[in-house]
Every structure is written in C-alpha cells, then in structure tokens.
Amino acid sequence: xxxxxxxxxxxxxxxxxxxxxxxxxxxxxxxxxxxxxxxxxxxxxxxxxxxxxxxxxxxxxxxxxxxxxxx
Length: 71
Description:
The protein is mainly alpha-helical. The protein is built from two helices and no strands.
C-alpha cells in the first residue's frame, strides 16, 4: 500500500490544529476537557472510517488499472 505524502501531511495538519484549539480553549478557561473526555472514541471511529474509505478506494484503483503487458 503506497502512502500519499500529501494526504498524510493534511491529516497531521488537522490533528495539530485540533490539539492546538483544545489547549487554546483550555487557556481561555473554556471547559473543553469534559467534551474531549466524552467524545474521544469518535476520533477513533472517524480514523477507522477514513482508513477504510481510502483503503477501498486504493484497492479499486489498482484493480481498474491494467498491468503493463496485460492489455
């Protein structure tokens, strides 16, 4: 499974933005940790759906692309 560096950098960019927002809101005395504590499994579900979607998409693209010499 070949990795797409652009997609990986976008994912890490979103993760860093979210972590930064959580700490910023905590610094501004906004109670965000209660929500994070309750909703962290949602991050796992979204991550799994993301991996599943792109895994199926990549597999379909490799099936549709004919291999050299098998035209």
